[in-house]
Write a structure and sequence with these properties.
By secondary structure, this protein is α/β, with parallel strands linked by helices. It has helices at residues 19-27, 48-53, 71-81, 100-106, 127-148, 162-168, 179-187, 211-227, and strands spanning 6-12, 35-41, 60-65, 86-90, 94-95, 113-121, 157-161, 192-202. The longest helix has 22 residues, at 127-148.
């Protein structure tokens, strides 16, 4: 079997509506790198696993089950399974562009950079809300850097050197939310996180009850988890 250069981890819980488009976008990657895709089924009760397994003849795909129900546990399991020296993260409801692998991996060429992350955009909230979100999201990322001194790692699109991930202690399997932000807090001491403003498509399902309320849910979750030092649970509609 050929050496795996890059591992891509996708946590999934009842994602039958989205995961096919996510995996199709990975089939269409324009890269010379040898990559594997790891779908972590977090106890789905729908056809998520069956849909994912249809892609086994299209690329190097592994579907594993993580019984502990949490986003942190699912990501932790997927990263543990990864064979590549660089690990990429995305979500089952994300659609990545054909140069996504090379964009994230290419950003690691500078030895000071130990992780890369990108922006995202929505296309399903209506023209006005899409325009607002697609402007606010990268702006919020830049502002986070101003206030906290480093960029966050967005679970829907980031890459990290495997050795750095291991040294950082990896994802906390107990976290239901902010597991990616928590990881970034520990990774930052090993080098720089680079932000690339080239967005992947991100489902707007978390904002179906209103864009403002959805954004506020993320803010409240962050404050609850990091300012009040309590275990963060997403304070909105995660699906």
């Amino acid at each position: 079997m050929s050496k795996v250069d890059v591992s891509i981890v996708i946590p999934a819980y009842n994602e039958e509506k989205y995961i096919e488009n996510c995996l199709k976008s990975l089939v269409e990657q324009r890269t010379s790198l040898n990559y594997e895709v790891i779908v972590v089924d977090n106890n789905s009760t729908d056809t998520t696993v069956q849909i994912a397994e249809k892609f086994k003849d299209k690329f190097n795909l592994k579907v594993v089950n993580e019984k502990k129900q949490s986003r942190g546990a699912a990501r932790y399991r997927g990263f543990k399974e990864a064979k590549g020296e660089i690990i990429l993260s995305t979500d089952a409801d994300a659609i990545v562009y054909p140069e996504w692998i090379d964009t994230l991996v290419g950003g690691l060429a500078n030895g000071e950079i130990i992780a890369t992350t990108t922006s995202c955009k929505t296309l399903d909230l209506g023209a006005i809300n899409d325009a607002i979100f697609n402007s606010v999201q990268p702006t919020a990322t830049y502002l986070y850097k101003v206030f906290f001194g480093h960029y966050w790692l967005a679970g829907f699109s980031f890459a990290i050197k495997k050795d750095v991930y291991i040294k950082s202690g990896g994802f906390s399997p107990n976290l239901q939310a902010l597991e990616d932000t928590d990881l970034a807090q520990r990774v930052k001491k090993f080098g720089r996180i680079k932000f690339i403003n080239k967005p992947v498509i991100f489902s707007g399902r978390r904002f179906k009850q209103g864009l403002l309320s959805g954004i506020l849910a993320y803010i409240k979750t962050f404050i609850y988890g990091y300012k009040l030092k309590r275990e963060p649970v997403f304070m909105g509609n995660p699906r």
